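Hi L.,

You mentioned the student needs an example of a multi-chain input paired with its predicted structure. This one should do, with 677 residues in total across all chains.
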Amino acid sequence: MDLDQWISKVKDGQHLSEEELQLLCEYVKEILIEESNVQPVNSPVTVCGDIHGQFHDLMKLFQTGGHVPDTNYIFMGDFVDRGYNSLEVFTILLLLKLGKDVHPANITLLRGNHESRQLTQMSFVPLGGTLSIVLRLSSQCMFFRYMVSMMSAKGSMATLNAWRYCTDVFDYLTLSAIIDGTVLCVHGGLSPDVRTIDQIRLVDRNCEIPHEGPFCDLMWSDPEDIETWAVSPRGAGWLFGSRVTTEFNHINKLNLVCRAHQLVQEGLKYMFQDKGLVTVWSAPNYCYRCGNVASILSFDENMVSHLFKSFLLNIERDVKYFNETEENNQMRGPRTGVPYFL
Amino acid sequence: MAESRSNRAAVQATNDDASASKLSCVKKGYMKDDYVHLFVKRPLRRSPIINRGYFSRWAAFRKLLSQFLDCGNETSHAKKQILSLGAGFDTTYFQLLDEGKGPYLYVELDFKEVTSKKASVIENSSQLRDKLGANSSISVEEGQVLSDHYKLLPVDLRDIPKLRDVISFADMDPSLPTFIIAECVLIYLDPDSSRAIVNWASKTFSTAVFFLYEQIHPDDAFGHQMILNLESRGCALLSINASPTLPAKERLFLDNGWQRAVAWDMLKVYGSFVDTQEKRRIERLELFDEFEEWHMMQEHYCVTYAVNDAMGIFGDFGFTRGSGESMNISSAMSP
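Structure written out for the whole complex:
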């Protein structure tokens, strides 16, 4: 297993072989299984939001924030789907997790609602003896391009296996991280079934995301300009408001809940009067359509000593913004395929 | 290069894209259309946001069309006409027949390249051909289908004199109530052409509704990307800067002879005009995880309708019919 060679391969736009991917996934699962549902992380660390298969923009993110292990990262899930390079994004993050000069603590990968079989599923339609793959989500499916490159070589079974290896890893990804005991990072948001962080620790995460309950809520909820709870239009998770967030932070001695899950045009958005929650979004010009800025949020070593939130000075945290890469901007191929109502 | 930004073939290809999208909706259960599949070679499944968006467009169109077809029936103005500009592979005529709502005359116009293909499909599909009736003739070469109540004719919409000719060739009666449709059609034409068509329509049809569905707001981040993306596929929105906002869409009609005009963006149309029961039904069809983009997309499209009412039958036609709300109408009388 030559990690450096694999990393170069993926950065050059090639996929790992089915066997290599299987090996990578097996090794990473062994690391992930050791992590807690609320994985403790020490500052300094940089927190990132959704990537959604935008591989070239992920490379730009590392240029902006620093490379692993010079910079430590927490990625808050939704690595796959929508963008054209889901498999490359997922693979490179797994390779970085496993890196030989890298300690697993240098990069923390949280699960997002898209790290789920339901959202990345393909359906198989037997067709007179031969299997033909019907892509359920067409270009959204993370394996669309992998299939195109592998089909000629090994055909449909290779793609099915690759999908299985990756979705099995999803079941091992942890649910949240806590920075210096004061900043909670989670993909979606809060749950009416989770009053204390200890309750997150009780969740059995080694499974597909359930349709309801605390595990589901942590992956799917959204903050809203209300006081407490409301039904979410997403059909999973909840809308939660200012009072609920303030209470949660108070009970758990947190300064901040850091989350992703919702596209913000400005890249970063604080919620509520007391700014007890922030949404970080790290996919610039999302889907080649939204024209948004992306951001990453860094916490330096000094945050530990800060008991008060100095939002105006921002001394303990630093936001970096970035736009899509020139490469992405110039890519004619993807631009011509962006869906609109015509 | 102006040619690569906007070329005829690419604009015509938007019809294929739209047809595939409509079929995607139909297969998922958003709406009923027994005929669109005849026009789509490679069925594709679209993302939920595209399905929901096409549904909202279809629902708004059908609801306004139904109002039109019901208007004035009590006063025996029952003979109605529908004129579809840039109709593409639209199947509304055949669906209306199945629903028992076939109008007196339905005329579809498009480039010859498109009407030829459509004529060919109609000729080769008995389910379509048989609905034309006894006195029908189909010419794939001419791109023409003629029958008692349905006519498909080729024309370049930018050529107003030819447009006039083709309307009289189709035996349209300009005095009859007429519903004119332009869904993502005028926006691809240069501003002078789109103005000329709106103007011609107003001068020609004295009791009419003009239904327009197209893009707005080219200037924000999303709009900017939309312009770039559509230009890169050769179907630039040539008219969008001439009417980039809702008031501007209304003015396009008011300044060109129409009596009143109302423009709502699709977010408002979906929220306040599409039937609640229908929305509840379709929202259950698929997992939908694209809310922020849904808002952005829908805010960049609008439905604008304009009304000429010589016969006085369109009194309560529109978005707020029956709602008791006072209509927010722009009219030729107010500043």
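You could point out the following to them. The interface with chain A takes residues 14, 17-18, 21, 44-47, 49-50, 53-54, 57, 184, 220-226, 228-230, 232-233, 235, 287-289, 291-293, 296-297, 301 of chain B (CB under 8 Å). The beta strands of chain B are 81-85, 105-110, 137-139, 144-146, 150-154, 178-183, 207-215, 260-265, 301-309, 330-331.

Best wishes,
N.
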